[in-house]
Amino acid sequence: xxxxxxxxxxxxxxxxxxxxxxxxxxxxxxxxxxxxxxxxxxxxxxxxxxxxxxxxxxxxxxxxxxxxxxxxxxxxxxxxxxxxxxxxxxxxxxxxxxxxxxxxxxxxxxxxxxxxxxxxxxxxxxxxxxxxxxxxxxxxxxxxxxxxxxxxxxxxxxxxxxxxxxxxxxxxxxxxxxxxxxxxxxxxxxxxxxxxxxxxxxxxxxxxxxxxxxxxxxxxxxxxxxxxxxxxxxxxxxxxxxxxxxxxxxxxxxxxxxxxxxxxxxxxxxxxxxxxxxxxxxxxxxxxxxxxxxxxxxxxxxxxxxxxxxxxxxxxxxxxxxxxxxxxxxxxxxxxxxxxxxxxxxxxxxxxxxxx
Length: 356
Fold this sequence. Notes:
Elements: H1 2-15, H2 21-44, H3 52-60, H4 62-77, H5 92-100, H6 102-107, H7 110-116, H8 118-153, H9 163-187, H10 196-217, H11 240-256, H12 267-274, H13 278-288, H14 293-310, H15 319-325, H16 331-342, H17 346-355
């Protein structure tokens, strides 16, 4: 059932409107997972005894999972990227391992696999484990870097944050570490703690369901250019006097025109309003106000929400209605932001105000 669903979701990703490289990588990843599940079935019914090359091949395609997962995350984050020759390097492990096992594919001799390639099989299992773990760690690194960049450009991140992908990556990483430790203890120490096939099967099935469905509904993230800056904006032509002027204009617009009430406000829209470049505006927000764009805009939204919560004009509105009106897209984000700035929930804030 999981395999059939994987093929179906892969098909949907390939025909998805506005298909991009990320969708292609995810579709291929799902198909590889389906092959992995079929490999587990073949191993369980011991068909590999008749076709030893089949067992070797199913084990080596594991080396495709890490790179495909990493490339999916990378191309999802940077939609302007194009697949180039250098990206083939990520699949060198898969190619190299299959070249090493070419004699088994050609001869189909089980004795070669059991006797002559015993040590290489142990090395292969160790390499596969470290290979997968490494790519999961690399994926977590770029996801962490991206979460910071998103907040430099967007005021609402509910629909574009990649927390779901981060959770999947952490879960897979934990499973890989457990299976890797088990493989080491079995092949080197000859201690069999448990049968890892069930855990692998559950992990693969979970990947198909979660990654497939969430990947289908995941929108493109960077529809506006990413702001590239170094830590101190050393190459910026913005001097202190101009930066202070921009800061004052920014604060005036935020107070008078309240652009933060637009839920889809981003740094490009606000910089257009100020007739300056997004990079200059980002620099001013970071250096002069000590915040990122996301925190600055949501601070003003919370201030506006505080005012409306106690204003008799808005007494007929619910807290949720006010949250939406000031620019938030969800109740949970509003409550989290409110508590961050006030150390109180909106209801606690209202209760405290009424008591006073």
